[in-house]
Amino acid sequence: MGRQMRVPGGILAVTVLLALAGCSQPASDRAAGDGKPSASASGAKSPSPSASKKGSGGDDGKPVTGDVLPGMVTVQVARTQLAALKVGPVGSMSGYSRDKFTHWIDQGSKCDTRETVIKRDGKDVTVNADCKAASGTWRSLYDGVTVTDAGKLDIDHMVPLAAAWRSGAAAWDAQRRKEFANDLVRPQLIAVSASANRSKGDQTPDSWQPTDKSAWCQYGRAWTTVKSAYGLTVTEAEKQMLTTMLDTCAS
Q: I need a surface site. Which of 58, 94, 156, 174 has the fewest CB within 10 A?
């Protein structure tokens, strides 16, 4: 939301009418539609020509209105989940491969998981006979950017595959990893701008946070819910930042 300014009544009325009318992985983690480089190679890129800022919060740090992810819980439930998460050290990346998390899988009607999320997360999305998005509008939760070209989107794993590996997924079987990588029920998958996704890489909340602070409430609840659902551990620093994120939620 933009900052309010004191203006004469007539100008304010016109302004209001106009406003209403307008009303994150290692290098081996790269894959179509989810091309995350490692934290060491990552860096936020300038938004693409098809992307522009949308004034929907962020300057004042207030949470955006309404959740945009499935399976979200209240802040009270998220706090309970966070308190119950096991705190442990960062695990080893030994043996990790993105290929051990099978995705994207078929979801029916010629759509795979990636295409399903793109349809779900956009507005006025149209697809062709192969389920590829032909048009639509997407608001990237992490940076407040509006994208009008599906080719400029990445599908982010809320808890990145490599981060999951380091916090317990190394011990999972192939089926469990496949479920995790394609989870449409929990808040694990979201369409965001490619620049935000690649800036995040495989980093945990203590190392990377959405640049749009209005997203912190949803981000913290989503991350906590996914880690809780899959029995993954958190570090002390990660837990502290998740607490900070939950503290931004409206009471």
A: 94
Cα dist. 33→14, 52, 143, 189 in Å?
A: 42, 20, 18, 12
Kindly state the helix (H) or strand (E) to which residue 51 belongs, with its residue range: strand 51-53
Residue 230 binned pLDDT confidence (cut-offs 50, 70, 90): very high
SS3 155: strand
Q: Classify residue 22: in a domain, yes or no.
A: no
Q: Say whether pLDDT at 251 is over 90.
A: no
Report how far residue 53's alpha carbon sits from residue 51's, in angstroms, rounded to the nearest whole number: 7
> What is the domain count for the chain?
1
Q: What is the pLDDT of residues 56-67, one digit of tens each?
A: 333 344 455 589
Our CA dihedral for 107, 74, 140, 194, rounded to 10 degrees, sits at: -60
CA 44, 119, 212, 241 torsion-angle sign: negative
- 202 occurs within a structural domain: yes
Residue 6 counted as domain residue? no
Query: Does residue 19 form part of some domain?
Result: no
Residue with more model confidence, 25 or 138: 138
- pTM for the model: 0.77
Mean predicted lDDT score pLDDT of the chain: 82
Q: Domain of 172?
A: 32-246
SS (H, E, C) 92-145: CCCCCCHHHCCCCCECCCCCEHHHHHHHHHCEEEEECCCCCEEEEEEECCCCCE
Instruction: Yes or no: say if 165 and 91 are a contact pair by the CB < 8 Å rule.
Output: yes
| CA distance readout (Å), 5 to 11, 53, 112 | 11, 20, 47
Q: How is residue 202 written in tokens?
A: 């495989």
